[in-house]
Specification:
Oligomer: heterodimer
Strand content of chain A: 15-25%
Order of helices and strands of chain B: HEHEHHEHH
Structural class of chain B: alpha/beta
Strand content of chain B: 5-15%
Helix content of chain B: 40-55%
Number of strands of chain A: 7
Strand order of the largest sheet of chain B: 1-2-3
Distance between the termini of chain A: 32 Å
Largest sheet of chain B: 3 strands, parallel
Number of helices of chain A: 3
Order of helices and strands of chain A: HEEEEHEEHE
Chain lengths: 166, 118
Amino acid sequence: MSFISQPPTQYIAQTTDTYVKLGFKPYQWFEAVTGPAFTPLSKPLSESKLAMISTAGTYVQGQVAYHYKDDTSIRAIPNNTPTDKIRFSHIMGNYLIEARQDPLTVFPLDALRRLKNEGLVGELSDNYLSCMGGIYSKNRVMTELIPNIEKALNQDQPDVLLLVPL
Amino acid sequence: MCLIARYFEAKGLPTLILGSALDILQAGRPPRAQFVNYPLGFESGRFQDRDNQYEVVASALQGFDTIKTPKIDTLPFEWQAGWEMLQARERGKSDQRSERHNTPQYQSEEDRRAAEKP
């Protein structure tokens, strides 16, 4: 059977082009000029407590949804939330058509539970976190969003952090 | 997302991004990332495919133990049917990005009522 590999999509070029056509303010993706810090794990994943952040504007039915104008708030999503109560509010709703029927395609509640049960992950945070992606102001990410996340993580004290963007 | 990962990594918390936009990951230079070449919206696996969702997340998380210096690895998954599904759906449509309203955008009216219940 022949198989044609899909080349990686050029999202930055594609979106920049679309925004010009639509007359939207250009979005500036974060471009790092230096390499990242690197922290080795202090123990194997099988002994570590894992936290997760989703940037898909994930919320639980009953919580206030996100708004689309640089929302820097976060939501805590209990790791035992039933999948059918997971919702998304995100500007890129066209990428969430299937996820709204099967939230596990972007918010892997079941997979993480199974990994914990099988002992591949030591422990799961009681609450996962979510926020909005596509925030225009890098300054507000640094001064509002990240402190909100940091406060939540400080309560939870995870050993490792999984980030799942949309 | 890279900004958040870099911040917490620098604070001493090991991070790993599971993402599907390779160019955005490359621009952001995260400490650890796993690229899965699925359409956006399927970062943690194929639609209604619990086994694939498990495989993707399990493979991604191995990066915590295997990645020893800053790196973006590519996961060995392909999903041609997913790209075709997306192409068929998007054909002829313009960008459907929502307007940037500053009020909560609920997935349904039922959700709004549930959140606004006193």
